[in-house]
Amino acid sequence: MVFPSRPLGASLALATALASCEKEEGVSGAPSLTDFAIEESALPASEENPQVVGGDRFEDFHYAFTIDRPTPSWQFFTTEKAAAINPDAAMAMTKPGFGFVAVIAEPYDGDLAAYRDLLSDNGSLPTGELRATEIGGLPALRGEALLAEAGAQLRYRIALVQRGRFFYRILGWAPEVRWARVEGEIDAVVDSFRPVEGREPTVRASLLSPDSEGFGWWIRDRVYSNAASGVRVRCPEGCRLMGAAELLNMGYSGDCAGIAGGLGELYVIVLSEPMPETAGYDPAAATATQLGGTLAAPRKVSVGGRAADEYTVDGLDIDYRVVATAGDGLSHRVLAWWKPGDRGRALALLDDCYAAIDWLGETEAAELAGRLAKLDPGNATGVDFALRRGRFFDFGNGYELALPGGKIYRTETPATTEGEGPRVRFDDLRGGTGCEVYATALAAGADHGEYHRGELAHIETELETGAREVAGREFLVTHYEVEGEPTFSRAMASTPYGGGADRVIEFWLHLPGAGRRAELDAALEEIAAGLETPGDGVPEIVRGAGTIADRRLGYEVAHPSAWDVEHMAVPGMEAVGSMVSLEQRDVLAGFLGMCSPYGLQLDVAANGMINSIGVKVDGATMTQSPAKLAGLDAALQQFEGTMGGKRVKLSIWTAQRDNSGYVCFLIDGAKLPADAPAKIAGYVSLID
C-alpha cells in the first residue's frame, strides 16, 4: 500500500534473528531448524501454487517476478513469515543472524520519481539518496540508508523498480556491525531481480488475521476486542484485521483497531481517546484540519448501533472519510481512505466495516482485562530499561515504577536514555488521566527548585507551584491549564533522588477539561506510591553464588562453579537481546533472552545461533520433541554434526512468554550422561 507506512517494521525481524556471538559463519547450506522456508518445487508458479522455489530461484506468480538467493545459506520465508515482517511483503528471505531482503509490490499511477516522493513523504522509505539505474532491464532507483530501529543501527540497500503501473520496493538490511560481511550478497540478491515475461503483475489478496494481543487488546478468531476502549470489531468478509506491527508501520499506535480491504481498496482505523464531549470541540473537523483538508456535507451512518455523521474530507489526493461518535466518556473516530479508482468496491466494504463495529459490555471488558493482565503482552525492553508485569525498570536512571493497578494503560518506551522523549508514557482511557515520566541527572551544584521552574519556562499560562508530600516523598507540584479544544488540566511534579539527591524524576499529568486539580492530585498520589529509588541504583545484572540474573530480559541462570560463565549483549542489537554462555572442556551451553514489542521469530534466532557458532548439522539425524524450558512449554530439537572438525551433538530449546523469547542450546563434544540436556535446560528460570 502507498499510504502512511514505516519502512518495514524491520526491528521485528532483527530483534529475533539474533546470532549468539560474532564468530565467522561456519556452515553453508545447513538445514533449517524449523519449517519456515518454502519447500522446493519442480512445478512452475501458478494460481494454485503462487510461490515456488526451484534451486536458488524464487518465483511469485501474482506479482510476476523472480529473485535469487546468492548461496544456500539464505532461506526463503513462507508467505506467513514474510507477512510477519511486513504485511505487504510479497516475499522475504534471510541469512540467519546476518541480514534480510524483502520485496513489496503494489500498483501506483505515476512515475518512479513520484513513487519515491510518495514513499518518502509518508515515511515508508528509509531516508537516503537514490540514483537512476536499471534492474532486470527495468527502470529503477537505487541507494543506501542508515536507520536506528529498536535500539539497533541498521544499514539498508534500497531499490525501487517500475514495470508499467506496478512498482517493486526491494529492501535489504542488516545490523551496521554486520553490513560489511553481507553487503555483497544483498547486492547480488537485488541484482538478480527479474520480471516474468508474458505475465503481467496483479495484486494478491492477503486476508490473514492471525491471533495476537497487545496492551489492553487482543485479536481472536478474526475479532478485535479492546478492554480499555470497549471497542469490538468483527472482521467483515473480504477484509482482514491489522495487527500491532502493521498499525505501527502505518504510523498509528498498536492499540487501535485496523481493517484492510481484501485487495488494498480500503483501510479503516478505529481510534479511541480519553476526551469527553466539550463545547466547541468537533473531532471530525479537527481530523480534517490535521490532514490539511475541509469537511464536505455528511451522510448518515450507523457505527456500532450509534447514529453518526460520516464526512468526506475534501482537498486531499485520496478519498478520505471520518466519523466521530462518543460513549462511556470516550471519543471514537473511524477513519477510512482508499486509492483513486477503488471507490465502488471501497464504499461497499466501508458499510460492512461500520456494521462490524460493536461495543463490549462492562463485564466483558473487565474479564478481558483480567486475561490480558495474566498474559502481559505489553512487556518491552531497551538498552537500559524493561517493562514487565506492570513494572517499569529504569536501569540507566536507577528507579523502578509500579504502574497503578486495576487500570488498562497504553505504554510507549524509548529505546535509550538519549533524546528528550519520556522514559515511559501511559494513559488511562477510562479515567482520562495521562502521564509522562522523565528522569535526568542534575548539573553539578544545580538546585532542584531552579531546575523545576526551568522545565516549565516554556509554559505560557498561569502557574501555581508549591512543595508538598506525596506518597511519603517531598515533591514540587505545579498546576496549570491549557485552553483549546478541549481545555486540559495539567500538573508537573518532580522530586530529587539518588545517594546525593543528584537526579530528578518528573511526572507530567493531564486530564481533559478545566478545574480538575483534585483529580490530578489523586492520580499523582497513586502513581508516586509505586516509585522506588534505592540509593545504590537498580542493577540490570545481578550476580550471586552460582547464579547470574538478567533483570532486563527477565531470566536467571544457575551454573556449576566449574564452568566458565560470561554474560554478553548481542553486538549491534543490545536493545533487544542478551545471553549467558557456559563453557567447560568440550561442552558449550548458552541461554539467550530477547524481547520485541513487534513479536518474535524464535526459529530464525535458533538458525542464526547455529550458523554463528559454526556447527555443520547433519539434517538426517534431527529429532524434535516437546519439552520444558524455565517452566514454559518448549520445542526441543536435537542433531548431530561437526564443529571445528570434531563430531558434536546439538540440543536447542525455544520457548516464549508474552513478547519475550528464550533460546537454550547445548553443544556436546564429550560423552555426557543421557540426562545432561535436561539438566542444562533446568539451569535457567524466569524472573519478574
Describe the 3D structure.
There is one protein chain. The chain has 688 residues and is α+β, with helices and mostly antiparallel strands. 17% of the residues lie in helices and 43% in strands. The strands form eight sheets. Strands 16, 17, 18, 19, 20, 21, 22 and 23 form an eight-stranded antiparallel β-sheet that branches. The chain is globular and about 75 Å long.
Number of helices, where a helix is a run of at least 4 consecutive DSSP H or I residues: 12
Distance between the termini: 40 Å
- How many E-type strands? 47
Task: Calculate Rg over CA atoms.
Answer: 27 Å
Which percent range describes the beta-strand content? 35-45%
Helical content stands at 10-25%
- Low-confidence runs of at least 5 consecutive residues: 1-37
Morphology: globular
Average predicted confidence as pLDDT:
82
- Biggest sheet features: 8 strands, antiparallel
Notable traits:
688 residues; eight-stranded antiparallel sheet; seven-stranded antiparallel sheet; disordered N terminus; 47 strands; globular; 12 helices; alpha+beta
Write the layout of secondary structure elements.
Layout: H1 10-16, E1 51-54, E2 57-60, E3 65-68, E4 75-76, H2 79-85, E5 89-95, E6 99-107, H3 112-121, E7 130-135, E8 138-149, E9 152-163, E10 166-175, H4 179-191, E11 194-195, E12 212-214, E13 217-220, E14 223-226, E15 231-234, E16 239-241, H5 244-249, E17 257-261, E18 267-273, H6 283-291, E19 294-295, E20 299-303, E21 306-314, E22 319-327, E23 330-338, H7 343-356, E24 357-359, H8 362-375, E25 380-381, E26 385-388, E27 391-394, E28 399-402, E29 409-412, E30 424-428, E31 434-441, H9 448-455, E32 464-470, E33 473-482, E34 488-497, E35 503-512, H10 517-528, E36 531-532, E37 541-544, E38 547-550, E39 555-558, E40 564-569, E41 577-584, E42 587-595, H11 602-613, E43 616-629, E44 632-643, E45 646-657, E46 660-668, H12 676-681, E47 684-686
